[in-house]
Amino acid sequence: MSVPHQENVDDAPEMLDADDALEEVEDAEGDIAMDSDDEQEEINLQNDSVAYFDAHKDSVFTIAQHPTLPSLIATGGSEGEGDDAPGKGYIFDTSPVVSRPVLPASYNADPSAAQQRSFELNSLFTIEGHSDSISALAFTLPRGECLVSAGMDGRLRAYQLAIDARNKASFNFVGETREVEEIHWLAPCPSEKYPNTIALGAKDGSVWVYTIDASDSSNPLQIVQTYFLHTGECTAGSWSPDGTFLATVSDDGSLLVWDVWGEAAARGLTHENGQTVVNLGMADQRFAVEGGLYSVAIDPKTSFVAVGGAGGAIKIVGLPRLGVDSQPMSSKQSKTKAKGADAGGSQGGSILADLQTQGDGIETLSFSPTNPLLAAGSVDGSVAVYDTSRRFAVRRHIREAHEDYSVVKVDWVRGLGDGWLLTSCGMDGVVRRWDMRGAAGTKESSMTKEWKGHRGDGEGGGVLGFVQGSTGERIVTAGDDGLVLVFEA
């Protein structure tokens, strides 16, 4: 049979011959099932928690723990009932959770069995009233008399805690204020002299300090101080352990340490602005961090402050000492000292160390409460620990602490391990605990335990924060997957 338009035969689509279409090809080995989906399912099902709270309908951005009643937990996130998904939070009690008995390895290896044994927690109170995500929560110190919530809507809302005769907790709304567009963080002042005081940092760079007075119905949230020296977003803040100073950092690369209560000013140790004892920024090339600063912590003795920023940079800056023997200086002496690095002869403002161990932004910093150790968590997935007694020498660098996923938080355990144990969480959805005794060690030799249960590995999950009380025996997590899980050490 002739083929019409022979000159265009190469342009015609290829057809399978009828005889070939009927031919069957035998597979000697049989069909091989794809196991990638099953493997991923097994990872998703693994749950090491002893309890869970799943009332959130979206990401849990923040978590707070009562300072004297550690079973009382507050969480907040982006989920809400309106079309614009206003922020919402919850308070629940973990005390009904019974410790899980030690089980044989074969049982623990069965993720579905572990899932069945997890205890469901119920809400005691719902945190409402925000028109955007709840970005931060904090119980006031030292007794946790109030809970404060902050939102991306700029609202600061306060609730008073009451405990009845049956030891049942209840919360009553005290009041709210809205002075800024968006709040990034909250930090409760630890000083017993100034109870129920809270500091916040805002998107516009401002820093506010409030005292909560539930007995004053006309003005329950009282402004103590307001600061406006940052020119970029205020990204993090930390009080000194004695509550004397408040250190804040910004994405404009500045570090400001505020003399909130005027104790340094009384000794002539503040800068000419009368507000700060440390004022460093991009203008000082020794301090400059291109890309900004995003984490800050003050050591237990209030001797120096550590700041972390873009590119893995960490700067250590000295703080002035406010000893009883300090003598007030004349105005001329004060100005001379303020211009130099060594305010009052106490290294206030001196750059003590410039560290660059990790390869990406420093998201979190934490000082050990009992040992001369500083821990840093990085976007590159690593955890570095420095010995502050040896000129900040690197004691441990765990390069793949959370694989290639950002480390969100590091925090030293106070009640176990004599201050050598460190807990970390990351966007891989895993919480890990490390033993930093010894001068060297790999990830495998340093890690004492890990807990899984959240989605991670870039699958819309990750752990955005955790609390571990004063003992570290229970860890409660805030998940990007909307789950709150309770793990036992």
Automatic annotation (TrEMBL):
<feature type="compositionally biased region" description="Acidic residues">
    <location>
        <begin position="9"/>
        <end position="40"/>
    </location>
</feature>
<dbReference type="InterPro" id="IPR051179">
    <property type="entry name" value="WD_repeat_multifunction"/>
</dbReference>
<feature type="repeat" description="WD">
    <location>
        <begin position="227"/>
        <end position="260"/>
    </location>
</feature>
<dbReference type="InterPro" id="IPR001680">
    <property type="entry name" value="WD40_rpt"/>
</dbReference>
<feature type="repeat" description="WD">
    <location>
        <begin position="127"/>
        <end position="161"/>
    </location>
</feature>
<feature type="region of interest" description="Disordered">
    <location>
        <begin position="325"/>
        <end position="347"/>
    </location>
</feature>
<keyword id="KW-0853">WD repeat</keyword>
<dbReference type="InterPro" id="IPR019775">
    <property type="entry name" value="WD40_repeat_CS"/>
</dbReference>
<keyword id="KW-0677">Repeat</keyword>
<dbReference type="InterPro" id="IPR015943">
    <property type="entry name" value="WD40/YVTN_repeat-like_dom_sf"/>
</dbReference>
<feature type="region of interest" description="Disordered">
    <location>
        <begin position="1"/>
        <end position="40"/>
    </location>
</feature>
<feature type="repeat" description="WD">
    <location>
        <begin position="355"/>
        <end position="396"/>
    </location>
</feature>
<protein>
    <submittedName>
        <fullName>Uu.00g115740.m01.CDS01</fullName>
    </submittedName>
</protein>
<dbReference type="InterPro" id="IPR036322">
    <property type="entry name" value="WD40_repeat_dom_sf"/>
</dbReference>
<dbReference type="Pfam" id="PF00400">
    <property type="entry name" value="WD40"/>
</dbReference>
